[in-house]
Amino acid sequence: MVIDYISGDFLEPKQLLHDQKYDGHKSLHDEDMAESLGFSGAPIEGCTHLSQFVPLLKKIFKDEWFISGCISVHYKNMVFEGERVKAFVKLPKKDSKITDIWMEKEDGTYVLSGTAGIGPKHETSALDSLMSKLDKPEKLVILSDIKEGLKSNKRVKVKMGFDQHMGDLYPFTLNDKLAVITELDEWYTEENGNKSPWKKPIIPIEMISVLTNFSGNPSNFSVKGPVIGLFANQEIKLFNGPLFVDEEYQIKKEIIALSQSKRVETYWCMTSVYDNENILVAECLLNQAFLKDSYKNYEQELKDISG
């Protein structure tokens, strides 16, 4: 049998979000909160898994991965502390700049699936395909004040230092993450980052998600609460990367779509990242899902909307 993929090892991602606060309360990553909502435990944050793909994508796409890479994933099943997972990357067809990726637990359960590739002209990603099939949602409750096309009022300056606490949403530092990251590249580190092709340390792709969410949601993105949210789909796309440690960037956010299922209401938020020369460095698409059961007024407000 011809094997048309490469894979990493089974690794155990670590949880750094036990003390995460969302909208002033504990998040789904808190054990007690997760169990109160019917989950078997507190899940590992989805973007943590992205690091396991990096050595494989670096092998396929070389240094260009860090300059114009794109990883686009649909989270299928949660991973809990103590579980081990493995990353798989399908070998791309000749001259192709995009390929399929997926992750599995030791029992074969799928954790995520999607695509990864390089630019500068990016091909249709997994989330591009998914979004093209979205239906317009009706009778949203938690997101009744959120509209497609809503933008942040202004750009926000963000930066990530090695010992910088990243706020209530991410109550840890880059050094805390590097101490437990599943795949550590020396280019990420304070000691050896100058060995990178750019002569300075780069931000790991999973931490780009942290950087773009450092300031939280813009004040005009009014989500009813208290409510529990989680990541359903995520895409990080570089145009002029990498992003560097201790370098200032500016971000702006826009709601580009809304959707819902039986259990959640979701928005799709695009965060654009610019350097200080106003060059677009990256885009981060996050499909944030809000659990209907976690909003105590959901049923009554739905009845009020429905008449």
Written description of the protein model:
The structure is a single chain. The N and C termini lie far apart (60 Å). This protein is of the alpha+beta class and 307 residues long. The model is unreliable at 25-30 (pLDDT under 50). The protein is globular. The chain has helices at 31-36, 54-61, 64-68, 126-131, 174-180, 205-212, 298-306, and strands at residues 5-7, 21-22, 25-26, 69-75, 85-90, 98-105, 110-118, 156-158, 229-238, 249-260, 264-274, 280-291. The strands form 2 sheets. The protein has a 10-stranded antiparallel beta sheet. It has a two-stranded antiparallel sheet with strand order 2-3. 16% of the residues lie in helices and 28% in strands. The chain has a single domain (5-119, 128-306), classed as Hotdog Thioesterase (Thiol Ester Dehydrase, Chain A).
Key attributes of the depicted protein:
about 15% helix, about 30% strand, two-stranded antiparallel ribbon, Thiol Ester Dehydrase, Chain A, 7 helices, alpha+beta, about 300 residues, ten-stranded antiparallel beta sheet, single chain
Count every beta strand, where a strand is a DSSP E run of 2 or more residues: 12
Strand order in the sheet with the most strands = 1-5-6-7-4-9-12-11-10-8
- Number of helical elements: 7
CATH-defined architecture: Roll
Residues in helices, as a percent range:
10-25%
Q: CATH fold name, please? A: Thiol Ester Dehydrase, Chain A
Strand content: 25-35%
Mean pLDDT: 91
Distance between the termini: 60 Å
Largest sheet: 10 strands, antiparallel
Content-based structural category: alpha+beta
Number of domains: 1
CATH class: Alpha Beta
User: What is the gyration radius calculated from CA atoms?
Assistant: 19 Å
Which term fits the overall shape?
A: globular
Instruction: Spell the H/E element sequence.
Output: EEEHHHEEEEHEHHEEEEH
